[in-house]
Write a structure and sequence with these properties.
- The complex is a heterodimer of chains A (549) and B (314).
- Chain A has 21 helices and no strands.
- Chain A is mostly helical and 549 residues long.
- In chain A, helix 14 crosses helix 17.
- The radius of gyration of chain A is 25 Å and the shape is globular.
- Helices cover 32% and strands 28% of the residues of chain B.
- Chain B contains 10 helices and 14 strands.
- A 6-stranded mixed β-sheet of chain B has the order 6-7-8-3-9-10, with helices on both faces. A 4-stranded antiparallel β-sheet of chain B has the order 2-1-4-5. A 4-stranded antiparallel β-sheet of chain B has the order 12-13-11-14, with no helix packed on it.
- Chain B is elongated, with a radius of gyration of 23 Å.
- In chain B, helix 4 packs antiparallel against helix 5.
- Classes of the chains: A mainly alpha (549), B alpha/beta (314).
């Protein structure tokens, strides 16, 4: 270590280099992160605002008669609906109807905010983007704060967009702004959770798994909330539940906003507290130690299994949590449904689900599993692309491994992993349903699981087609298609879109098995389209240049 | 998995040593309007080491990636031991091993797992030689990819290629990130590979490395091959520096062919001569020369000459 005597002049910066103040440097980093997230953020802001506004403007058409209004109003007496959608208050009104939809929109927003934070922090670190920034005068916490601030800025824009648009549409203005604020703060909370997970976990994969588990747990509590005898306290145990108290009749808007703001601040502060750590280090998932007896990977198929296993495990846990939550509640649901013939009829009409039998609940459960599996399939397509984008693929393709063989191997391993996740979900659904006091045959539960696999394989095939034809768009386009299909199926009917448009969503063609018969024709069509898309993708991949990120 | 017992050059196609290890004919790669590689032709005989030189963006990596079949050639052909690299990359790759300049590892695999994986997908490898290479290059193979430094990642890449004992080694700046001691070991390994009859195509910025191991070099500039030949031939094309001391009248140099930049001072003259030195020697003989020193250009000077030409031409 060297010391400098008081008389020794300190080396001075060259005079033609303008020194920026730390605040100016931080501001530049903040703007950099705004720019990195701009396109995705604007797409989400526009999409969510348009969806929510679309629901609000069509509510008057939906609720034509007083009888319909009363039927809708009685939905919150049925725990099944609230478990699916979140807490419902006065859903015969524009405010109540729109707020109830946010039970689902909130989940999408939370998932995006969380993934965006992990991508901005951990992924950037893994790709080596953080080192040059931190090699300057930026502190690790300064950089972390810049990333969080950028995401929060976009969420503030979302609050403005929702508040202004919904007020203009005739929403009760305080409720419109409360909805905007709460949506933004929910996003801010999960962005902060993603940032915290990025400090705790040493890799992007383990950060996503950690934050995803947190999100899944918060969601599971919300699903369980309507089944409890004293409902309100459990609703208040999860930020997803708080979103259900925004209706003016609850007089809780300020409480909800304060609670969300406090949670977001605590999570962000926790992330900042842990932010001063070594580069590429974390508390979990970063085993640095030597692994002298690590098993052989085997050949290319072994590698495909190995790189797929971690993501498949995470998705299996998420699917397991969802199927367990629904399974445990099945008995209570069908009890509540007994004697509510109109409600059962409504469930059949609106969701195609027989909510008065355990088999119907398994079908309803696997509707959500279908969405999750499709997202997992999009994740697989993105992971396959990442092998190419990171140029690791070069090590294999510069050896006697053909492109077709490489991609087909990855594709088959991913398809098998998706099937395995679904089957695991089937077993968990069966066990949890029995544990909760209802009864469903294992064969029926597995049928419900297998029934949703064609959707996942279709997604994977389309993802591979995009990989072959427009590789750089793989992740965004495949995830985008899954979100679009989900929204089309779940929100489309409320927007009164024409059937031809609604039918574009593959989820609409999934029968509610095991209560209903499997739609074999639809499944075969999906499999055929998926296989054709995969073939196109493999053929295009074999003929094009490899493309870096 | 069957390990390759020893170097097996019989693995090369049966046509025999006449078939060049690498044969590129008018190889061209265009990205839209940008021509990254323009009608590049090169042949490498079995057992020959060829260096590929050029400033950043000259097209070296594009050349290697097209040769490996990772990029589609816009026109022209690239063959490995007579096998078209684009039409049948799998067959072509059975005869080559590749060392990339930047080795992106799988973060979750250890060095040993990575080596085993890459050796397995190549079709087998010499385990004893792998262990020898691990020893000579001082690699700890039990660490996970994510904890390797750049230099250690590069060692994994070098070992993964050499342990296959492929008849052709293709290398893209293979010693980037290696320390001087390991670089010296690496160069020794290349010389040993050459002695065993392996061919090498080496793209490098380290001119001393190219000078130390290469039989021939090709110089790329803006996607065009501007020079190709043995180091002696290249030197021949370029000016030799001559310094002479003399007594009395300076020699008459005005019309001597090949002489440039002559500086005549107080009993000392300095000049550059290109081509045959015979006319210069005859001119010098007319004066009373007391000492003469002739120095061939180093590869670095040659490189500068091409590089500076580019600046002039710009």
């Amino acid at each position: 270590m060297t010391t400098t005597s008081p008389t020794t002049p300190r080396p001075r910066a060259r005079t033609n280099v303008a020194r920026r103040s730390p605040a100016a440097v931080w501001w530049r980093a903040y703007r950099h992160h705004l720019r990195l997230t701009r396109n995705a953020a604007l797409a989400w802001i526009a999409g969510l605002t348009a969806l929510s506004a679309g629901v609000a403007v069509t509510v008057e058409d939906r609720v034509g008669s007083e009888a319909e209004r009363q039927l809708l109003e009685s939905m919150h007496d049925v725990p099944a609906f609230e478990a699916l959608q979140g807490r419902m208050v006065e859903i015969g009104t524009m405010e109540g109807f729109t707020l109830a939809r946010w039970g689902m929109f909130g989940i999408l927003l939370a998932v995006w905010a969380m993934l965006a934070a992990v991508s901005l922090l951990r992924r950037a670190e893994e790709r080596g983007h953080v080192e040059p920034l931190r090699a300057g005068v930026l502190t690790p916490r300064g950089l972390l704060a810049a990333a969080i601030a950028a995401l929060w800025t976009w969420l503030a824009v979302l609050a403005l967009a929702i508040g202004a648009s919904h007020s203009a549409l005739g929403f009760d203005p305080p409720t419109a702004w409360a909805l905007g604020g709460a949506a933004a703060l929910l996003g801010a909370t999960f962005a902060a959770a993603g940032a915290l997970a990025s400090q705790l976990a040493a890799t992007r994969g383990s950060a996503v798994a950690l934050a995803g588990t947190l999100l899944g747990a918060a969601l599971a509590v919300r699903v369980a909330a309507p089944a409890t005898t004293t409902p309100d306290w459990l609703w208040w145990a999860t930020p997803f539940g708080w979103m259900g108290f925004l209706h003016p009749s609850d007089a809780s808007q300020a409480t909800v906003l304060l609670a969300l703001a406090a949670l977001a601040a605590v999570l962000a502060l926790a992330a900042l507290a842990l932010g001063r750590r070594d580069l590429h280090a974390g508390l979990v998932g970063g085993e640095e130690a030597s692994a002298p007896r690590a098993r052989r990977v085997g050949g290319q198929a072994g590698l495909a299994l190995r790189v797929t296993a971690a993501a498949a495990g995470t998705w299996a846990i998420i699917v397991g949590v969802v199927t367990a939550a629904f399974g445990l509640l099945t008995h209570d649901f069908i009890d509540a449904m007994a004697g509510m013939a109109t409600m059962v009829e409504l469930g059949r009409e609106m969701f195609g689900m027989a909510l008065d039998a355990p088999e119907g609940m398994v079908g309803a459960t696997f509707f959500f599993v279908a969405v999750l599996l499709a997202a997992a399939a999009a994740g697989q397509a993105a992971a396959i692309r990442e092998e190419e984008a990171s140029w690791r693929i070069e090590h294999l393709l510069a050896r006697p491994v053909g492109r077709t063989r490489w991609l087909v191997t990855r594709l088959l391993v991913s398809a098998a992993a998706l099937l395995a996740i679904a089957l695991a979900g089937g077993v968990v659904a069966w066990a949890a349903t029995r544990l909760g006091g209802a009864s469903v045959a294992l064969g029926d539960a597995l049928l419900g699981a297998v029934n949703v696999v064609p959707v996942a394989w279709l997604t994977l095939g389309v993802g591979v087609a995009i990989l072959g034809l427009a590789p750089r768009a793989t992740a965004a386009a495949t995830y985008g298609l899954v979100v679009a299909a989900f929204l089309l199926d779940f929100v489309g009917p409320f927007l009164e879109l024409p059937d031809r448009v609604l039918d574009a969503s593959p989820l609409r063609h999934v029968a509610a098995a095991p209560a209903a018969d499997v739609d074999v024709a639809a499944a075969l069509v999906m499999l055929a389209i998926g296989a054709a898309a995969a073939l196109v993708g493999v053929a295009a991949f074999a003929r094009r240049d490899l493309k870096e990120a | 998995m069957v390990d390759h017992p020893v170097l097996d050059l019989t693995d090369a196609p049966a046509e025999g040593p006449q078939v060049p290890a690498v044969r590129m004919v008018e190889l061209t790669k265009r990205y839209g309007t940008l021509t990254a590689l323009n009608r590049f032709s090169l042949a490498i005989a079995p057992g020959e080491i060829v260096g590929l030189l050029g400033p950043n963006g000259a097209g070296k990596t594009t050349t290697l990636r097209t040769l490996l079949g990772l990029l589609t050639p816009s026109s022209g052909t690239a063959e490995i031991f007579g096998i078209d690299a684009w039409r049948d990359p799998v067959a072509a790759h059975r005869h080559l091993a590749f060392i990339p300049g930047e080795f992106a590892v799988w973060p979750q695999l250890t060095g040993r797992q990575t080596l085993d994986l890459l050796g397995t997908v190549w079709g087998g490898y010499d385990r004893a030689y792998r262990d020898e290479l691990i020893e000579r290059l001082s690699l700890d193979p039990s660490k996970r990819g994510r904890s390797y430094s750049k230099g250690n990642r590069q060692k994994v890449a070098v070992i993964a290629a050499l342990m296959t004992r492929a008849p052709l080694l293709v290398m893209d700046e293979p010693s980037s990130g290696l320390d001087p001691l390991i670089t010296a070991t690496f160069q020794q390994l290349l010389r040993e590979a050459k002695q065993r009859g392996q061919s090498i195509l080496l793209s490098s910025h380290i001119l001393s490395e190219v000078e130390a191991v290469c039989d021939r070099v090709a110089v790329l500039r803006q996607g065009v091959c501007v020079e190709q030949g043995t180091l002696a031939e290249l030197r021949h094309l370029h000016a030799t520096t001559v310094e002479a001391t003399y007594v009395g009248t300076p020699p008459p140099l005005d019309d001597v062919p090949g002489v440039d930049d002559a500086e005549v001072g107080d009993g000392v003259l300095r000049l550059h001569v290109t081509g045959s030195p015979d006319p210069l020697l005859k001119a010098l003989a007319q004066a009373q020369v007391t000492a003469i020193q002739m120095r061939e250009p180093s590869l670095e000077e040659l490189f500068h000459a091409y590089y500076d030409d580019r600046a002039d031409g710009a």
